[in-house]
Amino acid sequence: MDDFLLFLLVGILAQLVDGALGMAYGVISASVLLAFGVPPAAASASVHAAEVFTTGASASSHIWHRNVEWRLFAPLALGGVVGGVAGAYVLSGVNGDMIKPFIVVYLAIMGVYILWRATRALRPRIIRPRWLVAPLGVIGGFFDAIGGGGWGPTVSSAMVGAGQQPRKAIGTVNSVEFLVTSAISATFLWALITGHWREAEGLDSHLAAVAGLVVGGLIAAPFAGFVVKRVPQRLLTFAVGGLLIVLAGFQGLQLAGLGGR
């Protein structure tokens, strides 16, 4: 029950931030799981299992409020699914201890990048041609599977940086994320069933955490619009970047044997 309540709070916080910025649910959730000693592959699988529910609710909301740029939806979804499946397959086939240092570096880079993005004010413009977002989807999907999060920080930031209207970028990326997350979760399940994932590392022991992330995310989803209207986006962006750097530092100390498990 303690794990459920803890990750219920994590899920609420992560979904509130994700709803406001179009990023960070997966990264924050995976970072907390890793900080508690959950192996990287199990952390990624757990987060994506939770995101199947939360991204479905988020996508429905964005479609209802007409926040989706449909001409970019298909190429971004195709690239994201391809990258996500490849990343999940790679992660499920290697030793978790080998990949964790790369995850720590990745999270630190994402934190620095998000902080950098918070200092920039770019004028929106239309992305042309639309197929340019497909390679971005591949990269974002791969990073998302490898890190247990990263689709939003990679793709939303890049699309806004390329000139896409922020509301449309966030709505499109969050809606596509449902398909990417479902593909990644299906790949983890396939790897487990076929024996490719030889070190599933006790996924059943993380069910309480997954349930907490799901319930917390679903509770917070309706308040995303309120957060977007009331809290300055730059302030939230700085908070996410700072949190990722702190969590990456904590995990780095764990790898160096200086932190508790």
What does this structure look like?
- The chain is mostly helical and 261 residues long.
- The protein has one domain.
- Helix content is 77%, strand content 0%.
- Helix 2 packs antiparallel against helix 3 and helix 3 packs across helix 6.
Secondary-structure blueprint:
Layout: H1 2-21, H2 25-35, H3 40-64, H4 70-92, H5 96-118, H6 133-147, H7 151-161, H8 166-194, H9 207-220, H10 224-230, H11 233-255
Helix pairs in contact: 1-2, 1-9, 1-10, 2-3, 2-11, 3-6, 3-8, 3-9, 4-6, 4-8, 5-11, 6-7, 7-8
Please give a quick description of this structure.
This protein is mostly helical and 261 residues long. The protein contains eleven helices and no strands.
User: Which class best fits the helix and strand makeup?
Assistant: mainly alpha
Beta-strand residue fraction = under 5%
Mean pLDDT: 80
For the record, the count of structural domains works out to 1
The poorly predicted ranges are: none
Largest sheet: none
Number of helices: 11
Distance between the termini: 19 Å
Shape: globular
SSE string: HHHHHHHHHHH
Gyration radius, in Å: 17 Å
Q: Strand tally, please?
A: 0
How much helical structure, as a percent, in the residues? over 70%
